[in-house]
Design a protein that fits this description.
Layout: H1 9-20, H2 24-30, E1 44-49, H3 63-72, E2 77-80, H4 100-108, E3 115-123, E4 130-134, H5 147-156, E5 160-163, H6 181-188, E6 194-199, E7 202-203, H7 205-214, E8 217-221, H8 228-231, E9 242-247, H9 252-260, E10 264-268, E11 271-274, H10 276-286, E12 287-293, E13 297-304, E14 310-314, E15 326-329, E16 333-340, E17 348-354, E18 357-358, E19 366-371
Parallel strand pairs: 1-2, 2-3, 5-6, 6-8, 11-18
Antiparallel strand pairs: 1-9, 3-4, 4-5, 6-7, 9-10, 10-11, 12-13, 13-16, 14-15, 14-17, 17-19
Helix pairs in contact: 3-4
Bound molecules: zinc ion (2 copies).
Length: about 375
């Protein structure tokens, strides 16, 4: 997908900073652009963006900028996925070798722990539309006339292939992601293993339903063509969409295995979407509870160590003394919760439904804590 909009908030922000006397250093501390999410039992939480473009297709930046953006945001892995068949800049930037943007990014990341995987975007009208093949060995071999051949070559190379922006209005004017017979064939032949439920700035509940019905991994990507921090203004608390991959270790092989086993979730616009098996522990591990006062009105401090501002619904069966049943726990902050337990039990459970996390279009994971 190609974006034509950019925000010009940064120059304006610079003027405001100058006028207000706030130093940029203070601001940078308040708005740390590095993603922070905890690991979950048994797995590392790896932050990944597997869809972005450079001047080697229709993007506006050199591959090293994609690496620097990812490092700035503390990502664990990226893939540059330039279009195989759409080369609008080829007169200025000849792109005979479709692995070239990957090679340049890989070189730019060589002294860091950022994993760069080889990828490419198979770019066709619908169906099948666009698909990203990542963990490729040679992108050139996918640059063929017959798209089925491209998908089969990707599989032969051991790649992971996901359906891009199935809800893109340029290919689906109604914005409703819809599985066609061809997509079903691709899934049945093992040629399609994931689906974007979030692309750039758009979300699809229907894509989430397709993923769940056909056991596809959930993917969220920036599909960035211009500059990341112009689109998602971290100084304003915005963030690029990412795929969280729950992997046994930080390596290309472990990433691929995790994606094949659908151990992913998507983080976009302060919303988490993924299987409750992973998202529940992710939210729970983000929070730390300290039991300050034990009496009929219990006082419990909840500290949120993550980037997500959680919207929590109290399901404990006890009413709260200082909050209504739904309240917000801001990112990297804490609140004191007063819980009314008239019988003053030795131990009690606090259970919350996490309203800005989804395990299905209208289902939210629940998390529980036992307090003694
Ligand atoms: Zn696309
Ligand atoms: Zn794209």
């Amino acid at each position: 997908m190609k974006t034509l909009t950019n925000k010009f908030a940064r120059p304006l922000l610079a003027i405001l900073i100058f006028a207000s006397g706030i130093t940029p250093g203070t601001l940078a501390q308040d708005h740390n652009p590095v993603f922070e999410f905890p690991d979950i039992p048994g797995y590392l939480t790896l932050l990944c963006d597997f869809h972005m473009h450079t001047v080697f297709s229709d993007g506006s930046v050199w591959p090293n900028i994609r690496v620097q953006e990812a490092q700035r945001h503390g990502l664990d892995a990226i893939s540059i996925t330039d279009h195989l068949e759409y080369q609008p800049k080829k007169e200025d930037v000849p792109h005979a070798d479709r692995n070239r943007s990957y090679q340049l990014a890989k070189e730019a990341a060589k002294n860091s722990d950022l994993i760069v995987v080889n990828g490419a975007e198979i770019t066709r009208s619908m169906p099948p539309g666009h698909a990203n093949a990542i963990f490729l060995k040679d992108a050139n071999k996918l640059n063929v006339d017959d798209y089925m051949e491209a998908f089969r070559e990707a599989k032969a190379q051991g790649a992971f292939v996901f359906w891009n922006h199935p809800h893109w209005t340029a290919q689906r004017p109604d914005g409703v992601a819809t599985l066609t017979g061809l997509h079903t064939e691709l899934i049945e032949e093992g040629l399609l293993s994931g689906i974007e439920i979030y692309n750039h700035t758009t979300y699809s509940d229907e894509a989430l339903q397709i993923a769940q019905a056909h056991h596809l991994a959930l993917i969220g990507t920036s599909d960035m063509h211009g500059l990341m921090d112009w689109e998602y203004d971290t100084s304003e608390g915005e963030h690029r969409p990412v795929t969280l991959v729950f992997a046994t270790e930080k390596s290309e092989q472990a990433l691929k295995e995790a994606m094949e086993e659908r151990r992913t979730a998507v983080w976009f616009d302060n919303t988490l979407v993924g299987d409750a098996t992973y998202v529940g522990p992710l939210v729970k591990n983000s929070l730390e509870l300290i039991h300050h006062v034990k009496s009929q009105v219990q006082q419990i401090e909840i500290i949120n160590h993550s980037d997500a501002s959680y919207i929590l619904e109290n399901l404990s069966g006890y009413t709260l003394h200082n909050k209504a049943s739904v309240f917000i726990l801001e990112a990297h902050s804490s609140i004191n919760l007063q819980v009314k337990t008239p019988e003053k039990p030795d131990s009690f459970d606090l259970t919350f439904r996490v309203l800005n996390a989804f395990s299905a279009p209208s289902e939210h994971p629940e998390i529980s804590f036992t307090l003694d």
